[in-house]
């Protein structure tokens, strides 16, 4: 099977490359100007521009669409850009996939939910409360065929991008205060496990909505405590903070049901 991964230098994409199933012939996309260090065909794609012309020479059976503005802060600062890249560009990619009969697997997020009605099943209605959630939900609505895969908070380190665990360990190492929401509840999932499931959905050409999440729920403070235990850290300066103090609206409880 030939599979295109959009945003091949991103965090989730890195985990997809580590879990590449046998027999998959990879293609990738990178933003113009980014370093191409890959041994498979990589094309230049800027999601701010029309998608189809960039994909002119691409011939694949499936697309895993990871490319996005994934930062909540950037989405709040640049809402139009977020809607363009996460929403409109996904719609253009969905049209391209429909025309080429390529199976589209769109990565979405638990943050499309409002946080007031957890736990959420895949067919529950999104009602996002911030720009990131709204833009990702716009992308979901554009996927008429194919799969919408909602990822919970991902836990796992990669050489590419700092995530929650890196941020936490860096602050702990430097003996800095670590502010953590005690009232934000998530169902975190190891990123490698999520990547394997994404491959499963892709290779089986599964359609519909899927939730990839862990069985257990944690608030951020509990997650911080679990990380201290896992990494044997002592005297870490965990500071409980309420979501009411968050600069960006964040849903308070987005536990995902796994079916
Ligand atoms: N990480 C999580 O905890 C998490 C949780 C739930 C859902 N998700 C979803 O999973 C997907 C992947 O997330 P991630 O954490 O891997 O994000 P990421 O590391 O930020 O990767 C995003 C990718 O999109 C690319 N990109 C950004 N703007 C672009 C543009 N204008 N044109 C073309 N490419 C562009 C980036 O390229 P550059 O790096 O070159 O800028 C990067 O390759 C996203 O859809 C996100 O919403 C992630």
Strand coverage percent: 15-25%
CATH architecture, please?
3-Layer(aba) Sandwich
The CATH superfamily name is NAD(P)-binding Rossmann-like Domain
Q: How much helicity do the residues have?
A: 25-40%
Distance between the termini: 27 Å
Spatial extent as radius of gyration: 18 Å
Q: Compounds present?
A: NADP nicotinamide-adenine-dinucleotide phosphate
Structure summary, number of beta strands: 13
Indicate the mean pLDDT.
Answer: 96
Strand order of the largest sheet: 3-2-1-4-5-6-11
What is the helix tally?
A: 8
Number of domains: 1
Q: What are the segments in which pLDDT stays under 50 over at least 5 consecutive residues?
A: none
Main β-sheet description: 7 strands, parallel
User: H/E element string?
Assistant: EHEEHEHHEHEEHEEEHEEHE
CATH-derived topology: Rossmann fold
Shape: globular
Characterization of this structure:
With 259 residues, this protein is α/β, with parallel strands linked by helices. The protein is 34% helix and 20% strand. It has one domain (2-155, 187-214): NAD(P)-binding Rossmann-like Domain (Rossmann fold). It has helices at 11-18, 51-54, 72-77, 79-100, 131-142, 164-173, 191-203, 220-231; strands spanning 2-6, 25-30, 42-44, 62-65, 103-109, 147-151, 154-155, 178-181, 185-186, 189-190, 208-212, 218-219, 238-241. The strands form four sheets. A seven-stranded parallel β-sheet has the order 3-2-1-4-5-6-11, sandwiched between helices. A two-stranded parallel sheet has the order 7-10. The longest helix is centred in the middle third of the chain and has 22 residues, at 79-100. The two termini are 27 Å apart. The protein binds NADP nicotinamide-adenine-dinucleotide phosphate. Residues 7, 9-13, 31, 34, 45-48, 66-70, 85, 107, 109, 136, 151, 153-154, 161 line the site of NADP nicotinamide-adenine-dinucleotide phosphate.
């Amino acid at each position: 099977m030939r599979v295109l991964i959009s945003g091949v230098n991103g965090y989730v994409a890195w985990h997809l490359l580590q879990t590449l199933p046998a027999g998959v012939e990879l293609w990738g996309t990178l933003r113009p100007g980014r370093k191409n260090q890959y041994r498979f065909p990589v094309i230049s794609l800027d999601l701010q521009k029309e998608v189809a012309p960039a994909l002119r020479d691409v011939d694949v059976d499936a697309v895993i669409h990871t490319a996005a503005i994934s930062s909540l802060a950037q989405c709040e600062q640049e809402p139009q850009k977020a809607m363009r890249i996460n929403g409109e560009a996904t719609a253009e990619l969905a049209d391209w996939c429909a025309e080429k009969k390529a199976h589209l697997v769109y990565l979405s997020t638990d943050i499309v939910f409002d946080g007031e009605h957890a736990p959420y099943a895949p067919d529950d209605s999104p009602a996002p409360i911030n720009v990131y959630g709204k833009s990702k939900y716009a992308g979901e609505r554009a996927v008429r065929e194919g799969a919408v895969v909602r990822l919970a908070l991902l836990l796992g380190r990669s050489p590419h991008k700092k995530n929650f665990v890196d941020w936490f360990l860096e602050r702990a190492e430097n003996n800095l205060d670590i502010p953590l929401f005690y009232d934000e509840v998530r169902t975190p999932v190891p990123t490698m496990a999520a990547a394997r499931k994404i491959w499963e959905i892709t290779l089986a050409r599964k359609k519909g909505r899927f939730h990839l999440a862990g069985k257990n729920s944690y608030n951020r403070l509990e997650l911080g405590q679990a990380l201290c235990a896992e990494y044997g850290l002592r005297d870490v300066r965990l500071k409980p903070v309420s979501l009411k103090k968050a600069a960006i609206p964040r849903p308070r409880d987005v536990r995902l049901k796994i079916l």
